[in-house]
Amino acid sequence: MSAKPRIRVPDSARIGEVIEIKTLIAHAMETGNRRNNDGSIVPRLLLHTFEAKFAGTEVFRANLHTGTAANPFLSFFMKVPGPGEFEFTWIEDGGARITERRALSVI
Amino acid sequence: MNGIRRNVCAILLVASAAHGQQSTDAIERKLETYRSMMKADPWSNPGMLDVERGEALWKTRGGPMNVSLEGCDLGLGPREVDGAFALLPRYFADADRVLDVEARILWCMEKLQGFERAKLLTRPHPGSGMPVKDFGAIATYVAYRSNGQSFATAFSHPKEKEALALGEALFFRRSGPMDFACSTCHADTGKRIRLQLLPFFSKAAEAQRIVGEWPAYRVSTAHVMTMQHRIYDCLWQMRLPEVELGSDLSVALISYLVKQAEGGQINVPGLKR
Q1: Distance (Å, whole) CA B214 – CA B216
Q2: Count: domains in chain A
Q3: Quick one: DSSP state of residue B150?
Q4: Contact A24 B49 (CB under 8 A)
Q5: What domain range is B51 assigned to?
Q6: Is B72 a catalytic residue?
Q7: B79 touches B70 (CB < 8 A)
Q8: What is the pLDDT of residues B182-221, one digit of tens each?
Q9: How large is the ipTM?
Q10: How many CB pairs under 8 A join A and B?
Q11: N or C: which end of chain B has fewer CB within 10 A?
């Protein structure tokens, strides 16, 4: 069983409020620079992109490279435009996508 | 002229000695900044991924018997998880042994879920960069559910006393090709291996702080390391024979460490180099 990504979004916020969103995902972030015991290269396998959409609009994007730690933690801030749903996507080398959604209600 | 040169030399020596001291302190301060940032926001500790994974594993049916581990008695009765870790290791009548959290989870995976013991004991610890094994994630979850509580094992049962005495003897007994005891590295304040400070277990405050942080996330290997894994690795570093997960020897050593940390607050997953 692999771990699910951890995402922290406030349950609710006011319009115009600046909120912090935190994400943490389990991933080895294999750089492609390491070798196995038999001398062969361990193939590169990174999450190369993280993107966050809110109500269908992109609000944050990060390109991750070989210098990113395993199990990457990312946090960013957003000014709340209104109610909506977050869509967080991590894209792995080879095209696999991990997507999580969280709703944000406005008070 | 000679006098001036001597003075310059003396100043340089003083300067370089001061520099060496400063850079060690500076590195330690930066590491402490990093640790305190992580502690300020425990949510961001990657070990929490395995707490959640462990919770799911605990509650999910599995094994040949297709049952969940919720029926596993961690000492407070089946389905009781909160606070159980604070009273481990302890004697379990059904196993007729003293078990720590990991040995107890293994016992339940074997007896309740029907897993083969030999398979559970084959390469039980993760390699660098690999996630902690299932039982380790479950142990991290169980320990997490005692956060804020204090180690309070009574060690009153004769077998618990026996484990404690064995653990103490092992801790101070030098053995193996390098003639090392645990106390070779852990019997003074401020000793370290590379940049990792080593706890002095005879000092209650240090033992309480350190033991309460295990299982812990290790940044250098990018996974949660359990206490059994920690003991396994220490004994490997001492070039002693490979210790079996949950064996009487490893449980005895953990019993001794937990006794030294008695009253210390549980604060897992910790964060290590």
Answers
A1: 5
A2: 1
A3: B
A4: yes
A5: 46-147+154-272
A6: no
A7: yes
A8: 999 998 888 888 777 889 999 999 999 999 999 999 988 8
A9: 0.82
A10: 49
A11: N
